[in-house]
Write a structure and sequence with these properties.
- The chain is α+β, with helices and mostly antiparallel strands.
- It is built from two helices and three strands.
- The protein has helices spanning 4-40, 45-52; strands spanning 58-64, 67-76, 86-95.
- The chain has a three-stranded antiparallel sheet with strand order 1-2-3.
């Protein structure tokens, strides 16, 4: 029991960190999608992505030709001070809608 309990605690910490990473990635994907769609409509994409992004996330929007690409990166809190930080990211691409005044990052 004394040898198995630390391994069980480590496994639990790794599992909770993985759940946190998956949840943060889903939030990044939602924010990237919203940012790309907003920029494709001619609205400020970074502001739209920032409203939906997880805490501490960075939103970047680039426009190239008739495509808008939004990328959101966010840090994941790990359980334990000695563990390295994890960063997850998500990217979404949208076509610029015809007749818009021009996409804005």
């Amino acid at each position: 029991m004394a040898a198995g309990l630390p391994a069980l605690v480590l496994l639990l910490a790794a599992g909770l960190t993985a759940v946190g990473a998956v949840t943060t990635r889903a939030g990044c994907l939602d924010a990237a999608r919203e940012a790309a769609l907003a920029a494709a409509r001619g609205e400020p994409g970074s502001a739209a992505g920032g409203r939906h992004a997880p805490g501490g996330a960075e939103v970047s929007v680039t426009v190239s030709g008739d495509r808008v690409t939004a990328t959101v990166r966010a840090p994941v809190r790990t359980l334990g001070a000695r563990l390295p930080r994890i960063t997850v990211s998500a990217t979404a691409v949208a076509a610029v809608e015809p007749g818009t005044p021009g996409p804005r990052p």
